């Protein structure tokens, strides 16, 4: 779902029935876009919420899916850092107490009193989550003493990654581990943008260069074998140093990080689509053995491979075609 689509969802009317003692009674989520907010950061969070809702479509709780609103101090068109304008609703049209969580993104460190007052009015029951590091000062003003979920010294991607983790954790808390796993599987199938976000249907997503795109395809096709930086650089006709720099700048990950993700995601598909033992799946994905695969799953998904298989098979969630398996991420 694009940010424009997010802004159109749900009933925007305020009624007393929506608020009980100042506490949100529905799964309403706000993405507050402030001045100079990078498009990719806000879009990555919006897209993740859409994937959570898609994952809930397999659940008998689908009627309780999240209602996502894109807000701003303006109305209709809002300018982002990339000069692209997005459709949003004005914060004045919404009581902040109606929201379960408010994700805030922006590129400046000072904001209008209207924004501060609106966030203060949300009260302690509403989660406030920074999408970009520049928002830390604003949230510290609204919630004194609260620590940001990611290190202040971290890169820009660290903050948006932390925000996405909060989305998935919230979905798991509300609807269980299976919904989180399904959301992650859906997200794994989307292409990456240069910033590391996954926003396939938005204007402004930066295309990969031909040589880096070819490298990604080669990694997907050869992830079960040995993949070396020297071989990738040679195929891209670059020095290793230049290849590593270009790859990280365009993909948002190092080649080794991308390879680990491809191997993990193919292992996920094999666990769901086949009855192969874990050791054999590990070898088919380029890992040494089942113990190595188990460490991957615990690190990235916080479940073991067998737990993942059991949870994911509660209902059918992926295609059984070999084409889906070979599609990679």
UniProtKB/TrEMBL annotation:
Residues 213-311 form the HTH araC/xylS-type domain. The keyword Transit peptide does not apply. InterPro entries: AraC_XylS_family_regulators (IPR050204), Class_I_gatase-like (IPR029062), Homeodomain-like_sf (IPR009057), HTH_AraC (IPR018060), HTH_AraC-typ_CS (IPR018062). Keywords: DNA-binding, Transcription, Transcription regulation. Pfam families: HTH_18. The keyword DNA-binding applies. GO terms for molecular function: DNA-binding transcription factor activity; sequence-specific DNA binding. This is Transcriptional regulator GlxA family with amidase domain. It comes from Paraburkholderia bannensis.
